[in-house]
Amino acid sequence: MDAARTRAIVDAASRPNMPRHVRLQLNELRDRYVVLAPEKVMWPDPVSVDVLKLCDGSRSIADIAQQLAADYNAPPEVIQTDVMEFVQEWTDKRLLVLS
Amino acid sequence: MDGQTVIGSVLDAPRPVPARPVRPAPVVGPPLGMLAELTHRCPLQCGYCSNPIQLLKANREVDTAGWLSILEQAADLGILQIHLSGGEPTLRPDLEQFVALLARKGVYTNLITAGTVLTRDRLFALRDAGLDHVQLSIQSVRADLSDKIGNIKGGLAKKLTLAGWVQEAGLPLTLNAPVHRHNIMDTGAVIDMALELGADRVEIANVQYYGWAAVNKAALMPEWSQVLEQQAVVEAARERLKGVLNIDFVTPDYYAKYPKPCMGGWARDVLNVTPEGKVLPCHAAESLTDMRFENATETPLADIWYKSESFNRYRGYDWMTDLCASCERVDNCFGGCRCQAMALTGNAANADPACSKSPHHHLMAEITGGYAGSEPPPFVYRRIAAQ
């Protein structure tokens, strides 16, 4: 049984990434971002889109929180807690992977 | 109640229902998903096949250019996800062309296969054309039962080999397990198999009784005790495998308290195209015999989606009985399944009898009760009849 077969737990150093089979794309017809995944079509809100765009496999949770804190002019520790929660939820649904 | 009334007449008597709230007419947006039934041909003959009883031969199938046009129209209409299905879609030699076109248009492609004819080379070619996801059906985790259900020799071994290639190709895998009385006790083993095969998702799909499954109802219907056991297995596995395996559970309608939101509501999000190009709001819609369905080789897909009588008939709330229109759950289930209402009550506009509020709900218990404890009859295998 490979390592992917245990639940991945997010910490500040985790670097989230979208697996190949999950796609965030701008749907021009509806003028909205959409996430396409196996048997799923999801419409993330604008904040979630900003988080997902930063989930590129090179940035850590801490990096992402710092970037968003600057963009939103908000306290980084609050943002980091929110980002960790978000990434954990999406990882549990196997829509993000951690490295 | 006077104590003399028999149960039947109580059930048939009109019940007071709250007044119908006034609701705005539905705003019809673009569809999200499409089931493309590329062919009815299939090496398997499962007695619960969701295809209609009147299966089409190869000479009735839309040709390559026809499908390419339909798929392009679907993408332009706003469809984001297309399920390439059948029958066995890999029997179409032009499948790679369809995948490549959809990939170019940014549409997410899902191959729904029984996995007995797809070669390794072809799977890799489909991946290179842009295929996003593979859904592989499993009849049973036991080789002998798998052969019996699909009426095919050696099916399971071929499926397991394909699952290995899917993993090798780096494609995500969903295992789809149609469940009935012959395999419901192996639900836990199916989940274990999904893990072993490296699947991301498993669908534990209790059979829905339309088409061939309706013919084979007595051979397929599980018993209540089996359903309860299965539910416990699925709930425990979901808890245990959180973040490891996504488990989708299609609950058994006949034992339900409330109906499923069939297709997410009639003609709200998805459409289905048959091998000959007919466009249906759901794959079983041809069981509504008074309905006429347009063909996408003759009528633009957008016109069918927005303007056709078949798509508009059960949109919104106006068509509903007072029971559904005044129900607080109406936006959860949209009245349930039109085909099931038609099959069991003779009127497709009635509430789905799977609903415990329906005056016809007792029919479900009468049917399951009639099969309980009896020896199941042999399967009537799915076959393409002469046309």
Feature tags:
heterodimer; A: alpha+beta; two-stranded antiparallel sheet; globular; B: 387 residues; alpha/beta; 9 strands; 35% helix
Note down, in words, how this protein is organized:
The complex is a heterodimer of chains A (99) and B (387). In chain A, strand 2 (23-27) and strand 3 (32-37) form a beta hairpin. Chain A has 3 helices and 5 strands. Chain A has a 3-stranded antiparallel beta sheet, covered by helices on one side. Chain A has a two-stranded antiparallel ribbon with strand order 1-5. In chain A, 38% of the residues lie in helices and 18% in strands. Chain A is an alpha+beta fold. Chain B has 387 residues and is an alpha/beta fold. Chain B contains 16 helices and 9 strands. Residues 1-11 of chain B have low confidence and may be disordered. At the A-B interface, strand 2 and strand 3 of A face loops of B.
Q: Residue share in helices of chain B?
A: 25-40%
Distance between the termini of chain B: 55 Å
Number of strands of chain A: 5
Lateral strand order in the biggest sheet of chain B: 7-6-5-4-3-2-1-8-9
What fraction, in percent, of the residue positions of chain A are helical? 25-40%
Q: Tally the helices of chain B: what do you get? A: 16
Helical stretch tally of chain A: 3
Global outline of chain A = globular
Order of helices and strands of chain B: HEHEHEHEHHEHEHHHEEEHHHHHH
Largest sheet of chain B: 9 strands, mixed
| Number of DSSP strand runs of chain B | 9
- The largest beta-sheet of chain A arranges its strands as 2-3-4
Average pLDDT over all residues of chain B: 93
Structural class of chain B: alpha/beta
Low-confidence stretches of chain B: 1-11
Radius of gyration of chain B: 21 Å
Q: Please report the distance between the alpha carbons of the first and last residues of chain A.
A: 18 Å
Please mark out the parts of chain A with pLDDT under 50 across 5 or more consecutive residues, or reply none.
Answer: none
**Structural class estimated from helices and strands of chain A:** alpha+beta
Task: Report Rg of chain A.
Answer: 14 Å
